Structures are given as structure tokens and as C-alpha cells.
């Protein structure tokens, strides 16, 4: 293999493909990146048997071929090269990079040991890239991290002809986000749901936003769980990840059908107050939230330990109540909301409470994102 291309193009392609290379590979070949040159295109690919990443970039292909080299080394070298054209020559023993006065030789890994990359499944539709990344970030905060419960470590995607819904829960909180979706075949009724690993989806979504549209590809199923893979593409970037096989929790009934009280609060001051008060929270202790006429009071700690307290102005409707919350759940939920105001709705001290977004203090709440958490029980 022998190619020439711009240093910036090489660095971008390698950085994208290398982000899926495992830090502790189960076999030596998985520590490498596969470089394939053909038809004036260089394809850089990474794979760990769960998630794959592929980037195609234009290159002058003098001799077509393929080589596998260390992903970590190639990523570091390509970023450090001077901003000049790069020539890569590779054989079975090594890949040599020439860039100006710089020359690097990287040992080649056995090409036959590199696993076959998964193919992209059938395209189902597309979404706005920036909106997709924002929505995934909002929902990923509520996904479980306990690998012994794999169903809870995923984000459920529910796809119809016009809407993509994302749902996650770790049993103690629940996040739901709806965004517009463009079906690849509007004339065919689409009703699909799959379960995607939250970490992989979050990493992919954050890196795909350079494309205006993100194309999503998967095997459509009707009202049933599906094992297999899901693919994403934006511009020259492609990625796939394996789906989680199993049935997601029935989350619809978790949201209260009606509330006994609510408060409208400016989001930024409430978030900053919660950050300050959380500084004195010890171990698994809660943060208390007292809602009353005209304000919400956050406090934590006691007379024996450190303590903190702060009041934030609120428009309150209901009877005074004191709820205990996990400080991390409270902070992550508020940070995920992309609106100047939030409406905080509750029923009792032991039943779910919900944050929804508000653009205006007296406007209607935005139903596209809901964040629910379970209050903590206290003496």
C-alpha cells in the first residue's frame, strides 16, 4: 500500500476510528486500526467486537492495499506531524509515514487476525445531528451503570414515521426525550424499538455532529426486542454498535397521572444553588427540598456535620412539602434541561417527582423532555 494525503485529513480519520479501540484489548489485533486504500479513498476502521467506527477520506492511492497498525501510536503520530502532505507506504512488516522531515515506522499487526467489520444495516431514516447529540446526552444521564443488569444500561429507541423517542432508567430515575425524525420510506408504517448501549450511543452521538444529518440504520422489527446491530452515519463518519437483547421496563405507568403540587423555578439559579449545597453532603446523605409559597429551599447536613442551606425564588402552587433527593440525581437532571425555566411537579414525599422544561415562567411546559426521580426516604 502506498498513498498520499493531507495531514489534517489523516489525523481526523484516525482520531474517529481510534476512539473505539479498547485500552485493554482481548487480542492484539483489536489494538490496531485497519487502513485500506482503494479507488482514491483511504478508509480508517476500528473495531472491538461491540462497536465499530469507520472514516473515509480522499487520498492519492499509488498502490492499493491494507495494513493494521497500532491505533494509539498512529493517532498520536498523525496529530503531531507538521501540517504538510503525508505519504504512507506499508507492507507486511511495517507502515512508514513520511511528512516533511519527519519519518516514522510503525510495526504492522497480522492482517489476517483482524476481525471482519460489520456491514451497515438498512437505512431507516435521519435526524438533525446537533439535536440528536443533545437528546442522547439528556437521556444518557439516567441510564444504569451496573453491568449485571444490562437492560438498564441501554437507551431504548422508539421509532415511528415522524418521531424518535429515547428512554432510559436505572430504577431510581427515568428520562424521556422526543425529537423529530425523517423516515427513509414515509409511505411505509414504521413502529420499531431497539435497545442501544448508553455509553456507546453517547460516544457516537457526540462525535457525529459535524454532519448536518445523522442517518440511522437498523433492521426494522414490529413491537418486539431485536438483537443485532444499529448503524449511524454523518458525512464521512460511520459507526455501528451491537444492540442489547431483552425487554425494556414498562415505563409509561411510572409517570404520575396527576400531581398534588408544582413549582416553576429559573433553572440556572436553582442548579447553582444545588451545586453549592451539595458540597456539604456526606456519602449517601440526601439533599432536602422544601417547597413553600414563593420559594424552594435546599438544605443538607445537620448540627453535628457540615451543613448548607439556600433559598431560590419560585412560583409555587400547592401545599408546603419537603422532599429528600439524591444530590447527584438532582444536579444531573437540572443540567440536562436546555431551557431557562423548569417546572417541578410532585405528588407525595415517597412518590416520583418530575422536572419538565419551560421557555417562559407562565408558558406551557415542553413535553419533549421529562426527567423523573424517586425521592429518598428519611426519618
N-end to C-end Cα span: 70 Å
- The number of helices is 6
User: How many β strands by DSSP?
Assistant: 26
Proportion of helical residues: 10-25%
Label the CATH architecture of the largest domain.
Roll
β-strand percent reads 35-45%
The largest beta-sheet arranges its strands as: 5-1-7-8-9-6-2-3-4-18-17-16-10-14
Q: Give the CATH class of the largest domain.
A: Alpha Beta
CATH homologous superfamily of the largest domain?
DNA Polymerase III, subunit A, domain 2
How many individual domains? Answer: 3
**CATH fold-type name of the largest domain:** DNA Polymerase III, Chain A, domain 2
Could you tell me the mean pLDDT?
92
- Largest sheet: number of strands, sense, barrel closure: 14 strands, antiparallel
Q: Given the helix and strand composition, which structural class is it? A: alpha+beta
Unreliable stretches (pLDDT < 50, length at least 5) are 221-226
Described by the principal axes of the CA atoms, the overall outline is elongated
**What is the gyration radius calculated from CA atoms?**
25 Å
Give the arrangement of secondary structure elements.
Layout: E1 2-6, H1 7-18, E2 32-38, E3 41-47, E4 51-58, E5 60-63, E6 65-70, H2 71-80, E7 85-90, E8 94-99, E9 102-109, E10 123-128, H3 129-140, E11 154-159, E12 163-169, E13 173-180, E14 182-183, E15 192-197, H4 198-207, E16 213-218, E17 229-234, E18 237-242, E19 261-266, H5 267-278, E20 287-292, E21 295-301, E22 307-317, E23 321-325, H6 327-336, E24 341-346, E25 353-358, E26 366-373
Antiparallel strand pairs: 1-5, 1-7, 2-3, 2-6, 3-4, 4-18, 6-9, 7-8, 8-9, 10-14, 10-16, 11-12, 11-15, 12-13, 13-26, 16-17, 17-18, 19-22, 19-24, 20-21, 20-23, 21-22, 24-25, 25-26
Helix pairs in contact: 1-2, 3-4, 5-6
Amino acid at each position: 500500500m502506498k498513498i498520499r494525503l493531507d495531514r489534517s485529513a489523516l489525523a481526523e480519520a484516525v482520531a474517529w476510528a481510534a476512539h473505539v479501540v479498547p485500552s485493554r484489548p482481548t487480542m492484539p489485533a483489536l489494538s490496531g486500526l485497519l487502513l485500506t486504500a482503494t479507488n482514491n479513498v483511504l478508509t480508517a476502521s476500528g473495531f472491538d467486537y461491540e462497536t465499530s467506527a469507520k472514516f473515509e477520506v480522499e487520498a492519492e492511492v499509488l498502490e492499493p492495499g491494507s495494513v493494521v497498525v497500532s491505533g494509539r501510536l498512529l493517532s498520536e503520530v498523525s496529530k503531531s506531524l507538521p501540517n504538510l502532505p503525508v505519504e504512507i507506504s506499508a507492507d507486511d512488516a511495517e507502515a512508514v509515514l513520511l511528512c516533511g522531515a519527519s519519518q516514522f515506522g510503525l510495526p504492522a499487526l497480522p492482517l489476517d487476525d483482524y476481525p471482519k467489520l460489520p456491514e451497515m444495516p438498512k437505512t431507516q431514516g435521519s435526524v438533525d445531528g446537533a439535536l440528536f447529540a443533545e437528546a442522547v446526552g439528556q437521556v444518557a444521564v439516567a441510564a444504569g451503570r451496573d453491568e449485571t443488569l444490562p437492560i438498564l444500561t441501554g437507551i431504548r429507541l422508539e421509532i415511528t414515521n415522524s418521531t424518535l423517542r429515547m428512554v432510559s432508567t436505572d430504577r431510581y430515575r427515568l428520562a424521556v426525550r422526543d425529537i423529530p425524525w425523517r423516515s427513509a420510506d414515509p409511505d411505509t408504517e414504521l413502529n420499531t424499538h431497539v435497545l442501544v448501549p448508553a455509553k456507546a450511543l453517547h460516544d457516537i452521538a457526540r462525535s457525529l455532529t459535524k454532519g448536518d444529518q445523522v442517518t440511522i440504520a437498523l433492521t426494522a422489527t414490529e413491537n418486539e426486542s431485536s438483537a443485532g446491530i444499529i448503524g449511524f452515519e454523518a458525512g464521512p463518519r460511520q459507526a455501528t454498535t451491537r444492540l442489547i437483547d431483552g425487554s425494556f421496563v414498562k415505563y409509561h405507568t411510572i409517570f404520575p397521572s396527576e400531581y398534588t403540587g408544582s413549582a416553576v423555578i429559573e433553572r440556572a439559579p436553582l442548579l447553582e444553588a444545588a451545586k453549592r449545597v451539595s458540597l456539604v453532603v456526606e456519602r449517601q446523605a440526601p439533599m432536602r427540598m422544601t417547597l413553600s409559597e414563593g420559594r424552594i429551599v435546599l438544605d443538607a447536613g445537620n448540627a453535628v456535620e457540615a451543613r448548607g442551606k439556600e433559598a431560590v425564588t419560585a412560583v409555587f402552587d400547592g401545599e408546603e412539602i419537603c422532599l429528600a433527593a439524591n444530590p447527584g440525581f438532582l444536579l444531573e437532571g437540572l443540567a440536562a434541561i436546555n431551557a431557562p425555566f423548569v417546572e417541578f411537579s410532585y405528588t407525595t414525599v415517597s412518590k416520583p417527582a418530575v422536572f419538565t422544561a419551560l421557555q417562559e415562567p407562565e408558558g406551557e411546559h415542553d413535553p419533549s423532555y421529562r426527567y423523573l426521580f424517586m425521592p429518598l426516604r428519611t426519618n
